[in-house]
Amino acid sequence: MSAPSMTKFVMKRPWLKRWMQPLSECVDDLIPEESDVVMLALKRLPPKEAYDRVFRLRRAFQCSLSHQLLPKDQQTKPEEDYLYLSPIIKEIEQENRERGDLEAMVVNNKKKSKS
After folding, report:
1. Can you tell me the distance from the alpha carbon of 104 to that of 100, in angstroms, rounded to the nearest whole number?
2. Contact present, 46 and 92 (Cβ < 8 Å)
């Protein structure tokens, strides 16, 4: 299971989403990286997505250090926002569940009856 994420909490509250939009450019940028599942999902990202994520995080960090918001023209519009990391995280969690089910499976061999 992945680490606690603010993504669902923010997405359910439009006022909070509007407040967070200048601070984070994509919703998936709010997912913490401490979990093994998220780290594996980040490794599976295509190179361009990984580069774009690092660029957005660095720009957000720079804005935070300078105590400024991102200019309106550089903010991600809601129609441009997309989930790039969540589908990969769900896929990895599904793989982990399947792996756990297969490892817990017990195979019983039927004994041949002598007739």
Report:
1. 6
2. no
User: What is the model's pTM?
Assistant: 0.68
Amino acid found at 31: I
Structure tokens belonging to residue 61: 């960090």
C-alpha radius of gyration, the chain, whole number: 21
Instruction: Give the integer Cα–Cα distance in Å for 99 and 105.
Output: 10
How far apart, in whole angstroms, are the C-alpha atoms of residue 44 and residue 21? 26
**Residue 98 phi, psi dihedral angles, 5° rounding:** -65, -40
Give, rounded to a whole angstrom, the gap between the first and last alpha carbons of the chain: 51
Question: Closest by alpha carbon to 36, among 99, 89, 85?
Answer: 89
Contact 37, 93 (CB under 8 A): yes
Mean pLDDT of the chain: 81
- Mean pLDDT throughout 88-105? 92
